[in-house]
Amino acid sequence: ESQLAMQKLMADKETIVKILSSGKLIQCSEAIDVLLLMDGSYSIGKGSFERSKRFATKLCDILDINPDRVRIGVIQFSTKPKLEFGLEIYSTKEEAKEAIKRIIFRGGSTEIGRAMKYVLRKGFHGARESAPKIIVILTDGKSQDNATLPLRLARNSGMTVFAVGIKHPSWEDLKSLASNPSELHVFYAENYDDAINGLFTTLTQSTVCSDIHPACRVVSQFCLRTTVDAEKEYHGKHVCWKSKKDGGKQHGKPMATFCPFYKLVSTALDDNVYDNMILLVFAIADPCDSGPCLNGGTCIMETVDEYSCLCPLGYGGDKNCEPAAITDCTVDLLFLVDGSWNMGLEGFHQAKGFVKLLLQSIMASSAMVSVGFAQYSDSVRMEIGMGQYSTFSDLLKAIDWIRFKGGNTFTGRALQYVAEYGFKTSDGFRNSIPHVLMVLSNSKSRDSLIFPAQYAKEREILILSVGISSMINELTQIAGDTRMAFTFNGAQELHNKVLELRNKICGLNTPGCFSKSLDLVFAVDASNNVGRQNFRYIKGFVRNVISHFDIDRELTQVGMVIYSDKPRTLFNLDAFDSEGKMKRAINSAPFLHGNALTGKALQYILEDTLSIQRGVRPGVQKVVVLITNGQSTDNALASAEHLRQNGIIIIAVGVGNAQSASLLRIAGNPKSMISLWSYEDVKHSEMNLVRKILGELSAIYFSLDLSS
């Protein structure tokens, strides 16, 4: 190793120690309440969220967590905030660290303003009145809502706000979040130790106090010397010298960087202080100079010998950002591959290679992915049944053995077949798991695609279509949405689609698709017209529909009314704030017998259920979902019109012998109506109803923004 330069740094009876950023010492007995706000949005991603968790656990290591000293709590925020644990829950750092490790990434939009409003409204859970309030925001800095006012209110109320940058935030974004002076309240998490040291100076007061003898006096000392350029984003005034230790001795390979949280402390004490301590400072090669991080990863110098890679979404299989398998992907995935003469043998083998590459990026030991493979031309051949192979290696071998079929291209016929039979396993259909159909074709179909594609969507199957660029119109017709149609020119361009397609497929696990406030009431016919067994089907249907919403007093509230001769409230809108209790209440709903007076039930909902006394929220969108066979013995049209005149949306689900004309007049327009042949079919229409409730009739599966 060549020595490029050398300097001597003299420190006569001085040593560098960590003190408060403000330069003031606080009594060691003073308590602090620390609340971590962890960004759990899609812009952060699961990989960087894990980095946030690692940062939080390291912070716990240097905090004196104790009910009488430092208390810590965590809120994860995205589209809405979620209290992971309050300040009063954990009394030791070990307990807090384990709780942080268990936090699960939620996903959603980045709404820091909403998170701060939550803090201001509900306060620090478990906080002490006299303890200073510290907020540490871990984020990429780009809020999708207005956070200026709630942050200003928080700072004006005496809260100290730190901003810790995760991923690649700009200084200006973080500065807008933090308290002043920003140089002392903004840090970057790329280098854990430096950022932790910065927070340490304000947060671990008892530890700081124990390090400084009462005879010490604190003086400010500006920049020493550096032979290494510091990052421009660091706005600190002081230089940290880091050096490796060998048996307790300092030697040979220190680094220098600006640190806003170090100052020089002079001491008159002679014990354990080196006279004329000499540090040899070398300018050395950066371990990142060789560009070790692959696939667009960012290299971070940890020590003079070591580095770490900040990997983009989808990478991180090893230290250098090799592709990583997603471990929490739960779908039934069926490949439908064109095996016609127009596709050709070469195109068919190219498609098989792509399927294997995509599966390698998705599947892991803990991934809950069942895979099937169908080849089509004049007819459809199920080459691999859904979930037929339990090991990944056996699955890949089976794909290798699939032989090219040949024939004409009948894509519509193939879509109809796999929609009906392709997702069936040995245990039947897994209706609780997303069904994804990926169609790979390079040739135009000889039959119609419209009705088969619609049939697949009605069975809640998400279709992704992949083919050459000239096929874009047909691919869009197959998928039903341009965002679900992927084109390529050449093998390399096809392989480059792997990450995007994997994120679409595995993004379907996202819980809670509805992020806007909603008061939702189900009006369920429990009369003899429906029957006891069919009423059970309806209850299961309602249970499954509500699982797609975030049940929360600030987001989605759900109420339920059952009716026959008389309406009966099963539960009001403000009765439950969790999905589990609500589902148990639905299970207990009794069958009422009697005649169906739908008009009376709708009027009851308007006058009673949708009243402020029953939990309705002014200014929040209100939707009534009517589930009936349509045979009402009273006039329901007048009551339905009264609801609409009050700004309430009605969605009518008619089953069995429901009269379409009558149902349409109740719903008000065809887009607000669902007609089903039998009660057994309701389980296939859950997402259809969800999409209608969300008002996005053309949205794709779970109303998820798949363009992100």
From TrEMBL:
Coiled coil: none annotated. Residues 33-203, 332-505, 519-697 form the VWFA domain. SMART domains: EGF, EGF_CA, VWA. Keywords: Cell adhesion, Collagen, Disulfide bond, EGF-like domain, Extracellular matrix, Repeat, Secreted, Signal. Its main location: secreted. One of its GO terms (biological process) is calcium-independent cell-matrix adhesion. InterPro entries: ECM_Assembly_Org, EGF, EGF-like_Ca-bd_dom, VWF_A, vWFA_dom_sf. It is found in: Secreted, Extracellular space, Extracellular matrix. One of its GO terms (cellular component) is basement membrane. The keyword Repeat applies. GO terms for molecular function: calcium ion binding. It comes from the Eukaryota. Transmembrane segments: none annotated. Residues 284-322 form the EGF-like domain. This is von Willebrand factor A domain-containing protein 2-like. It comes from Callorhinchus milii.
